[in-house]
## 1
Amino acid sequence: MEIAVNSERTKRFARGILNNVVWLILILCIIIFSSSIDGYFSIRNYINILSNSAFIGILAIAESYCLISGNLDLSIESVAGYSSIFSAWLTGTSVSSSGLNINPYLTLVLCLVIGIIVGFINSYLILKFKINSFLVTLSTYIIVKGLAITLTRGAGVSMLPGSFRLVETIKIFNISLIPIIMIVIYIIFHFILQNTQFGAHIFIIGGNINAAYSFGVNVKSVIIRVFILSGALSALSGWLMTAKANGANPTMASGMLFEVLAAVVLGGVSLQGGVGSLLGVFAGVLLLSSIRSALNIMAISPFITEVIRGLLVLFAILVDSIKRLFFK
Amino acid sequence: MEVLIRVEGLFKNFGSVRALNNVSFEIFQNEVVGLVGDNGAGKSTLIKILSGNFPPDKGDIYLNGLKVNFKSPINAKKMGIETVYQDLSLCSNLDTVSNLFIGREITKNFTGFKILQKRKMESRTAEIMKKIGINIPSLKERVEFLSGGERQAVALGRFVAWGQNLALLDEPTAALGIRETRKVLELILQIKKEKKDLSIIIVSHNLQHVFEIADRIIVLRHGSIVGIRDKSSTTPEEIVGLITGAISIKK
């Protein structure tokens, strides 16, 4: 396929636009929704959009790291779900809880450890037995999901100590700590990806794993660290869900995986590895959240929401292909 | 001239096929040697042994007078032997700077984080590209958007930056157009001039190219060396004769 692209400069300009197209769409969407939907244009709604994107947002960082390194982590959703029910089970006082009354911040540590262990197992299996990451994490996804349901025999847990909710109840300018935590994590992980040797190696491995090996990049160590981070971030996301909801049930994070993948692809992360930026991913997360909010306010059927979300992902994939076909 | 690498009596069989048969030669310091021969003559086998992909059945390799025994390509790399297989060793998703510094990023330690020194890496890259006279439109452009010749220049730029001892170039111009081929050949000569500690073995099917850049030419036929010629004392006709067997050596 060929189109007439005159100069290198126009090409680069067009590529630049396509690389940041998600921000353009986000801004357009917010302008259109704000001007056409009653009740959309309010600070409170914008804060809501931000707050509602926190869990997906943190999971999207985890998935972006994995995808850029050329891997896929399906287990993020069930690690988040397990972390959510596990922390509630340890701290809650309702019927299905453990009755142990453990300090909620100790449960955060325990959840992170579990996330790290799952991440390590994922990477170990991928590296040791050279199994595709899709298959490995599909297995751990199912196993951890099963463990979450087993923990309380499917029941939910409530009546958590008030101190658990501090991240939700403390507010700065009317914004709870949860979205602020997300933004801080975005800044840190964006910096790591763009400005450290570890980040550079993630891109190298995702781009050409053979070159990485032969130029002495420690591929194993990088992949292990990526999956450990992914597990830890997923666990954190699940713990925050419990804090916000003041309780948990074993299916807390169900369906988030596909929303995360949608956000990440919209944000310009290539499923083939080696390409992506957390700036774009952040916009992708906000875009999905703002569309969800619009559909909510208009009281549109949630089933249509799914269709629209699907169309958006398709659009994102098309933009990615256009980049590759036309501007080679 | 000092001998950089000496190969003595290499044999290699693949099943009943004799790929290398008593191959011995020397490569001098800062020399470009063309390795030619028909398909199946043993060129690739020889390159793969020198780059540590597999060991010979028999025979020795001496680097700077010391016997070496490569167990893997990384082993050979540590001894300063690098191989370029067209542009397969590039990360097309990254820019020129990142590609040049794969596995050798310049970093500064900051509380356990190794922070990239991007400015330093960029200026070093610009320096190297200038040294070899290659003008890449933007060093921060992803390599996949560069032309074939520019990509090959990036791959070769690594020798300028890091190469020492021996560079093995396996058909470096095979995938390139006429103008880009010309550039890459000039580049190889430029590298030779700039890097006095580097010798180059180039495998090519194109005798014209070999004659342009090589100091000496080694001809392989059926796994044996049938001729080693100084460029100045041979002709393309003689080399073709040796490759095809029209000129046979006296035993």
Note: The interface with chain A takes residues 73-74, 77, 88-94, 98, 102-105, 107, 113-116, 118, 137-138, 141, 144-145 of chain B (CB under 8 Å).
## 2
Amino acid sequence: MALRLDVALKDMSLRAPAPLFERQPQPRGVFTSQRGFMLALGLVSVLVIAVLPFLDASLYTMSIATSALIYIMLCMGLNVVVGYAGLLDLGYIAFFAVGAYVSGIFTTVLGWPMWAALPATVLACIIAGVIIGAPTLRLRSDYLAIVTLGFGEIIRITANNLEITGGPSGIHGIPSWDFGGWSFNDGFNLFGIEFPERVVFYYFVAAVVIVVGVIGAGRLAKGKLGRAWKAVRDDEDAAEAMGINTYIAKISAYIIGAVWAGMAGQLMATHLSAISPNSFQFLYSALILMAVVLGGMGSTPGVIIGALFVSLAPELLRDFAEWRYLIFGVLLVVVMLFRPAGLWPATAVLPWLKRNRPTPPAFTDSISSVEASVMESVDGVPHADVHEGDRS
Amino acid sequence: MQLIWNGLIVGSFYALVALGYSMVYGIIKLLNFAHGDIYMLGAFVGFFTLSAFGISNETSIPLLLVILLLSMVTTGLIGVGIERVAYRPLRKSPRLAVLITAIGVSFTLEYGVRQIFGPNPEAFPIRLESSGFDVAGVRVTASQIVLVVIAAALMLVLAHIVERTRQGRAMRAIALDPQGAQLMGVNVNRVISIVFFIGSSLAGAAGVMAGAYYGSIDFLMGFIIGLKAFTAAVIGGIGNLYGAMLGGLLLGLLESFGSAWFGGEWRDVFAFAFLILFLTFKPTGLLGARVVERM
Amino acid sequence: MSALLEVSDLRLQFGGVKAVDGLSFEVHAAEILAVIGPNGAGKTSAFNCISGFYLPTSGSVRFDGRNIVRPAPDFWHALRLVPLLQSFGFFRVLPSRVTKWGMARTFQNLRLFREMSVLDNVKTALHARLREGFWSTLLHTPGYRRAEEACVREARGWLDFVGYQGSEHLYVTQLPYGEQRRVEIARALATSPQLLLLDEPAAGLNFNEKQALMALIRRIRDLGVAVVLIEHDMGLVMKLAERIVVLNYGKEIADGTPEQIARDPLVIEAYLGVEEEAR
């Protein structure tokens, strides 16, 4: 066992003594553990998404739902940048624009199929992320915010002025996805149930958003890279002292965010089949940021709720459409003042689990006795594998 | 020459707004995102007062000065109010939280004004469209001279306040060491309020002047100028008042030449590219002190 | 036997202030060295230079045969581009690199990752040693699972080693101060160091905790790790350290065993002042 695990570590001159104490196994039930509940919640959401077209497959509903899903993708990407890595990006919509324009240009001007444009989109977003990130990520967070804002404006104005991007009127007639002859436009027939184009596209977007956007980002956040991001967010100097190259950690967060936004942009370009510079104003960067902050920075369920709120609010509150930006602005201030961690904070514990929460160790008086017991078990035993049998 | 003159006019607007940015940043290290919108508010306060009296298409300079003072006081108070409500409770919070709050404030101001005055541009009631004359081949109008003189006067007053008065000394003390200043008996909250008042009233003055100069105002006019003013503050060295003035004028000139050479539609791109270059290679700006990063 | 860490003629200037002014000392493998000196003597600044956070004005630091200070060629100095290039990572060794070479440190005031659990804090320190790629994280390959398992095992091992008894799922801000100190030491150990720099590890601890800390530092030394600590508690230093370096005004004024240091007239003068200067 120990040998097999050693493969995972490189040049460790100093290895930890094997753990001395038995850990209690974590509960895994749906209502007895955070993890189980989240999994169940995720499954239920996937079911809801899957069932929706059977309830209402009208053009309007499908269009709104697709947009909402794309918003979730976008917000999950920004969450990596702002929530995990703690870098305020006020020009995030620029990457969305890069994705939309690159896929639009490749499919309309060059006539590539949509799937072939995907690598180009991803590559363009990586390059854009590096170009803007490399010089500025050394800067303090507030400078970064303004620089990204300026970058967002540069991209929009450039798109507005260039010939190839169609100027102020943008790009029209962006094709849907087709795979060697069969395209989403043809619809789909399964077991006698007809799936029209919009439903097929909706399912496609849902699959991408759930697999890449939500699960992918969540997994990255839990691994080595995610820990590095959070460490940089919490304390940059300490992270550097822990052997994390903070510059690389930040730029990787930036690139991941850019790629997520680019993919969302490509989906949006297909969804709307037309894009114009007006859809990439600062307003939208602020809206996405608002969704992430409102839901809870660094919290997957929070960000999804925030994204749904921001994308669906104008549809549900038609009468307030005029007022919504004002309301959003006030909400942003109020949330920051009174609930800075958002509606569903990343550190939230389910209310009924709070009882079982571990209590902090008491303010040490018995520590020296603990120390004695620890020393007894270490002294004299070669510090490699004390309880090897128990743990493997 | 014409380019230089035009650049100076625009630059003096930038400088006025940049001063507020720089003062606030210098004293509480907050990037007051809503500052550009204070500029917009200043223009709208002037618009509102004049419309309330039914004045339009006026060209008198004394009236402009009265409106200017009124707007300055109003926006100054609004600035103090914003600081009290939105920023003061968060003074000990992480920087990210305060920045996000500032964005929220900016949104609130922009769309609040939009709800009151509507989304369309309004014609500013005072127009300074007097006949121009040529000086050494440069077309100069009286209104331009008036604006430059007002801007210069405001900056001189500000320099006097910061350099010569007790409050100015307190400001510089807080900028260096807030806790130390507090221990020395400086009322930190009061001084920060004063800074917000001065900074906001300068932005408000710039707003009125821009309204009179360009003739039309709208609720989003503060966004771009806020960005530009920040650029100016960074070029000059953020936190440094003379730097902000210098940066504003420089940026005005750069833009004036940039748009002449590359075309007007690239003007903003030009300015922001400059911002990014500056932050990359000389983040302390032209006059900024070299900051030793302490852990 | 060549030294693990060789600091020679280290100088650091902030403007006109000489924070460190010609410091030289050596650390050998598996020894406990204490650096002491009055407040403002430049101890922490020296630490920051050694661990790569500050760029010394001159002097050299060699760790395990590698140079930590890399002077820039005169050419770049002449162009006045050195600070810019250094901010991009040229002509310097980043602290993260120093850590990878095997030097870990703690901070004077606790610098734990506040929004991470105790276990995650320690796991973070394994960053540089963990074989875990982008795609394996996305796809949760067996390699990823193995890496995470090894990582948790190491982290738990170190938490037990330092005697942390609370739940590993607590957020560090929920812990009492003494426990946070323990977690910080566990985190530093998890980077697999040959040399551990502790910046005032006993500050703010009560008597029992100090006793536990002394035992812990000895056990760390017994693992073969050299420990260098800055400390103000003379009792602790005299009992624990095998060798002591004394700084005053950025200069080294003494270097020797605790007994030698206790008798050194220069040290007594620095701490108590001579008659004439005493006010």
Note: Residues 88 and 189 of chain B are 8 Å apart (CA to CA).
## 3
Amino acid sequence: MRSKAFGERASWPLKTAALGALLFLHTPIVIIILYAFTTDDRTFRFPPPGLTTQWFETAIASRPDFWAALGLSLQVAVLATLAALVLGTLIAAAMYRTKFFGREAISLIVVLPIALPGIVSGIALRSAIGFMEIPFSFFTIIVGHATFCIVVVYNNVIARLRRTSPSLAEASMDLGATTFQTFRYIMLPSIATAVLAGALLAFALSFDEIIVTTFTAGQQQTLPIWIFSQLSRPRQRPVTNVAAVFVILLTAIPIILAARLTRRAGGDAPG
Amino acid sequence: MTEFAVELRDVVKEFADPGKAGELVAAVNHVTLQIKDGEFFSLLGPSGCGKTTSLRMIAGFELPTSGEVLIHGQSMGKTPPYQRPVNTVFQNYALFPHMTIGENVAFGLQMKGVPKAEIEPRVKEALEMVRLPGYEKRKPRQLSGGQQQRVALARALVNRPEVLLLDEPLGALDLKLRKEMQLELKTLQREVGITFIYVTHDQEEALTMSDRIAVFNAGRIEQVGTPADIYEYPATEFVAGFVGVSNLIRGEAARQITGTAADFTIRPEKISLQEAGAPVADGRCTIGGTIHDVVYLGAHTRYLIDLDGGGELVVVQQNLETTSMDVRAARGRKVQLVWERGHNRLVARSG
Amino acid sequence: MAAQTIPLPPPSLARRLSTFFYRRPRLSLFATLALPLFWLVIVYLGALLALVIQSFYRVEGFTGQVVREFTLGNYQQLLEPANIDIILRTSLMAALVTLAAVPLAYPLAYYMARYASPRMKTILYVAILLPLWSSYLVRVYAWKLILAREGIIGWAAEQLGLSGVLDGFLAIPGIGGPSLALSNFGVFIAFVYVWLPYLILPIQAALERVPKSLLDASSDLGAKPNTTFRTVIWPLAFPGVVAGSIFTFSLTLGDFVVPTVLGNSQFFIGQAVLTLQGTSGNLPLAAALTVVPMMIMGLYLTAAKRLGAFDAL
């Protein structure tokens, strides 16, 4: 419902409120970055008494626990994303056109891992792990992550599939391409950017997740778990902020990429 | 002629009824059709009448619930579209947006494994045939609707199908462009020489382009014939009303005019208007009425006449001498409608 | 043009497989869904089942081992005042957070839907998604910095001479605490902050679906902008608000991070569950407690479905 006719402009109270919300969203992040440079390593004093980059060096050079956590988070995110990609795309392909018995139920199940509060998914998986007496490990974490990442991929892919005209696949088969060839030459290019966007979002989601991970990780520490454990320890406070800056970068970049991909391909479908 | 280009034998297609769960509705209800080689054959009817479904069954996008689809004598059975010797031109063109025009047109050849050296000249030839030479490198979104439609044509024809199926291809174009394309398509068909099966809801379009027409209604065919046959000798009330204006006269009014109570239709251009009370020659039908409304259409004028005995008739007259000025004065005048008895057409009620 | 149809390529395995599946649409569907369904149903739904079953077991007092005997003891324990307290506190917080987030989210969503150019819209999308994904933990932590006694808010209050007001505020029981960074109010602010993007986007999507022609018709019939908003826009975009509220409510209900980082010692459901399954070693009770937010969300989702939120997602 866009209103650009006759030079219609937003009223300034609206603009102020919108801007206010945006500032509210972003200022805390700026603060975090600021505090990664403070010289005060005990308190959260404002304004910071001095600025330094020493904590970056400390984090990089002398905190192996930080690196271990970062590495684990990356591995988990990559594998969980791959699993979610395959599963999410398959579901989207099945659901986007054919009406079949149980379609609504599947729609619900896909959303459930993210719609139910994290502790529910967490305790559920924990109980299941307990029952089956599987040891906590790398794989228990990935299973948890992949499950709630599926919906992110699914949403992206199915939105794109719904925007693709069904006659494209029909035209392809009419011209002599089998279903596999149609998928490869026609469908795949049209959903490629959506799949990629979904993958990026899933990566960011997994990288950042703490609640379900806490319940499925046992002794291992992903980066968020590590940060959480650091919050109650006053030792070298700004290093936590440095870790935070790393996390911000590692999640911000995929998001920006994902947004540009979805937008660019969005204007690409005539007829 | 030993075999037809396309044949439908007692074809039925049922779908799940969207309104009533668990029930089926027949979109195509026992349709039998024979289409000759080299014909421009139209499937005509209102939306939902089964014409598009029938076309899709020939193409292979739908499989019949029962009955057979044959192409040049071969029963298609459950053959998928990519194994059938037909190609389709879609209403929304369905050009692949991520490929250039050249790649689009070459797609069918590529899928069938035609060597690259051969593909290029064939694509060039196809684009020239639809009067878009040199467009290979452009993308679909850079083209207008009419141009996209021609690319879709080229993409289909380059594969040299035995039959070309067209699903309301001109529906998205504006009137003037549509009329141009109608003539182009007809010329193209004569040049290429293959059978065209054309789906449309526009009866004027069907009359203009076709060698023969099949008129569909609610899943059944009501009449098959040449444009002249269908217009001059409509078999049913529906055909009479769908193709042109029908001017249906029933029961008592019919008895008054012709002496028998059989339903008949009379085309509006066959009726002439005389002064009320003027003498009527033998062998002609006549009835009196009052001009209720007049519409001036430039080349001709359309009159809506309230008949004396009740009912209405539409009369169309060429404006040989009348002008819009005379037209306004005509409202409310009493007239005598006169036409040749031989122009009456008896019609069956529609099933 | 010579009219010779091109011969079909020879029937390779791929072609035959393709035709096999094409003729059997239901088998194709099943083949596509088999793997993901297996995962979701067996793994996830199975885990949920495990949770429910777990909630009916109990722990052996001494060994701390789970005894697999059916008992309702955990649910009885939930009815104790301390636990009821926790449940009510969490539910109230979830409701307040949701209610407070709507007026904050709406203007931005409205601006995006109605006035932003396509380019500006992408920029705003990124601007909203960025905080969402740039580490939830970090964003919560940021408020610890901001709300700390010696942090920005404290500093600003001092500069403006409002320290007294701040202290008075902190003294209010139930809301205040030793400092803003250790108070229910801090928890409240942080919750609103972290879930805000989840609310903005569905509202924006719902607003975009309101056809401009309706707004034109409304003003054409004489309605002032406020009236048009109240009678046309708000009701039509409401499903989007409900859809977004599912997130804010659900996420608040189950969270343990924010209360741990910013709360005082009053427990929320998430923290209780965490300690129960961890150090206290009473997994069955933790499971029983977890069933509570499940039920609450079940009711919430049913209500949301009635209000059309699922079509808005």
Note: The CA atoms of residues 74 and 180 of chain B lie 36 Å apart.
## 4
Amino acid sequence: MRTTATFTMAARALRRNKLRSTLTALGIIIGVGAVIAMVGIGNGAKAQVEAQIASLGENVILIFSGSFTASGVRSGWGGAGTLTIEDAEAIRREIPDVAAVSPEVRTTVQIAAGNQNWATLLIGVAPEYFDIRRWPVADGAVFTEQDVRSANKVAIIGLTTARQLFGNDDPVGQIVRIRNVPFIVVAVLTPKGLSVMGTDQDDVVILPYTSAMKRVMGTTRLRGITVQAARPTALAAVQQQITELLRQRLRIGPGREDTFTIRSQEEIAEAAGATARVMRILLGSIASVSLIVGGIGIMNIMLVSVTERTREIGIRLAVGAHERDILLQFLIEAVMLSSVGGVIGILLGVATSKILAVTAGWPTLISTDAIVVAFVFSASVGIFFGFYPARRASQLDPIEALRYE
Amino acid sequence: MNAVIQLANVSKTYQTGEVAVRAVRGVSLEFLPGEFVAIMGASGSGKSTLMNILGCLDRPTTGLYHLAGVDVAQLNRDQLATIRNQKLGFVFQGFNLLSRTSALENVELPLLYTPGHLPARELRERALRALATVGLAARADHHPNQLSGGQQQRVAIARALVNEPAVLLADEPTGNLDSRTSLEIMDVFQKLNEQGITIIMVTHELDIARHTKRNVIMRDGLVVADTLVTNRLLASVEMQQLDRDHQTANLAP
């Protein structure tokens, strides 16, 4: 029989039972919609994590101080730790393939300007820090090596801090007071947005590390050291060499644990990527289950339909339909249900993702892959779950079928 | 003249559990082109089984069956389907039209299963021509539930005719109809037969059988009588008589 006629007949049969066809397709619509939306959310989350990790900079190795015990009081991780400025200088001096090194200290402070004040994160770093993290200033200029050597009272502030203290005024050249020490604002940073942890990276004041340690915190211990390797291929070697150097400098005997933590950006990216991947797989599989449930719905309705239309099948067989004609007719009906459902589901899923992106602020990313896979999968669901009922229909005995009441 | 249908010693045995039921036990019959035959018999006489075999819906257990020169006894399911499509037209007791489908689409149905590509316009034209033959061209767009029983049966006849079959088979075509409508259907059959169409019909009503040209009577799976009809009734004349009776009845009081 002609294929176009089969399609016309299938479409006609589905139109005859509009409500039933719609409800059956709804299973697939929801399934495909869920797959598209869920994968969209998963992809969006993954892309966001990747972007945030890229914002750390390129070829970066982070070294965090370990816990440090002074007079029986143990500091926390990365607090006043085991590492010192000398360690940072040793890394710069002794390890080849290191492009830049920046010691780092952190604390939270109350910062004041005029009659405004604001609690923010204070970071003390070297000028290279801004290159390593690819964090240019929006206005003014980064402090210099000279500022570091002299522990000058200069500060660079993030956009959030600038807004809170100065509103819309230009902060560059103004004075801020940190623990009653006045600092001149030399630059405002470009906005960097949220970190991997979800904190506002622009709510910050950055000083030369010497100024921060001597004039504000009164410590000689670093929170950590940020190192940039010269090449991506050198990352692993540099990480290994730093570990050996620091174990030696901190006099950690063989077999004892490091009193510092060292992580390359790759490792961080991997961990975060794995989380995003697990989330995507989880969301994807939940959505797939609903697709399978939709498929079972189709099979159920097709079986009911075959039973209901036994007499129709008998008439068709009597006037000359071949087994294949009947098989195709019911199979096409099932595939039509599932693929039309699939198309509507894709539209629904894309719409849901967009709405979620706008209303809930979740980043979503619709990939063509997901759309193609969802469509092919829904059509296959139709073939898979439609085949058994269609085969049953095609195997009916014409005499029995004609007699069926 | 060559027979359009030849049955030679045809038998059909059904195996129901332990018991073998011999529904047809060796029937030999010949039907010539242009014949109008009624197969009669009580229920259980094997006439329906014989009809299923004649209609290529069922295969004989033993014996030979030639239909328009083709030996159909040994064909498979799909080959039989093609024979039903090309050589036979069916009219059933219960009309067996597709519900919620227009009369025209119902008549087009056999053409959809005809091998080769027929353009949609030709499908429509042929279906309309068949509907015109039974006098229902004006009702082409009506659905079965909008038609009377007699009209539905005429749509079914149009469907049986649309592929210009060698033989038209009718299984109790008037069984679900009142006597007046039965006459209408017999009138259609008689007119078709006059145009040369071979018709084989199963019925248990003697007065219906008297509209045909030949009566085959079956009992216990065997043909017990095969006679030509004398004093054949003409449905058109009877209908006129019936109408006159009705008029007098209305005028009388």
Note: The longest strand of chain B covers residues 19-31.
